Amino acid sequence: MNEDLFMEITRRDDIGADLKAPITARGGANTPGYTLVSAVQANSIVVHYDSAAEQIVGVSRATGERFNEPIWWAARGSYARKAGAEPRWLPGLVVALEGYRPLAEPLSLAVLRQRRLALLAVRDALQAEYPGQPLYFPWIPYQDSLRTFQAYVAKFPLTVLDVLPEVKEAVDLLLGEQPSATLAQSGIKEAERQVASAAGRPRTPHKGQGFATDQRVKVAVETYAMNEALLYYTRLGKVTNTSRTESYDYEVEIGGASWHVEVKGTTGDPAEILLTPSEVRHANEYPRVALFVLSNITVTRDSSGEIITSGGRASIFHPWLLDRAQLSPVGYRYRLAGDAEKAETLPTNPE
Known about the structure:
Blueprint: E1 5-10, E2 18-22, H1 32-35, E3 45-50, E4 55-73, H2 78-82, E5 88-108, H3 109-114, H4 116-129, E6 139-142, E7 145-148, E8 153-155, H5 160-163, H6 165-175, H7 187-198, H8 215-234, E9 238-241, E10 250-254, E11 257-265, H9 277-285, E12 289-301, E13 307-317
Parallel strand pairs: 1-3, 11-12
Antiparallel strand pairs: 1-8, 2-5, 3-4, 4-5, 6-7, 9-10, 10-11, 12-13
């Protein structure tokens, strides 16, 4: 095993699903707790610390799949609390995980503090070996004890496993399992994800929505549209973010009725949008669906290269009555079951 271990420090209720963090922190700055997410590679081991329960709860492995998408983010550090930071949509990086394995017994902060001297001895040895270099160690001294590093992701040195055999046991069991075929899946799922990723994102030369060539720009545009839609509908009723669990983005209570809102953003004119199959089905089946399209969004970059989004024209369809005559396919799934008997097997070593 190499040193490719990390620790996620989070209050999420879906620990082990993935790692996700803003591409940049408040004000466009890069912070280690966020940028370390991009250092997680295929087969990296992630130790999960539940900061709400104050305990290490499990381990998982990175699949190697990563992508940019808007994420609903609430910074919880002391700086963010002092600044009164509210949850909002931010351009984010998502790293997929698999094989989540809970510890036989969660390892509490109280137990970690009992092993404080051994843990800090590991840190001191690393500081001596790598003088002047940042360690991003999971724990720091605090008064006469220690506390968890105040960041989303920290490095987890291999030698810490000698101090925490409970974690080592879970890691060894995880390493004994075969990785799933996530990266070897057929292109169908990847194509579906690409369509879902493109739905709601722009391509500058195209009138209307399309497949953008710059993923960072796509994410920035969609994030901007989601935040503008949130501002608009918050004035009308109670808004619930449903984008993680449903095919629509928001549920809004207006006048005692529940409306499902789909949000799209584009730098082009409001001529057309991309929809996923799930979005089409839902628009056909649910009686109260609204569509919020923010078009003509302006995208610029500041002196540091950071993407800036502004402006836009809101087109609001409330209700949104889907006209199937206006739908055009952008791809098809074709089942080969009926053609299997016609297939030929090529020789392994053709002459």
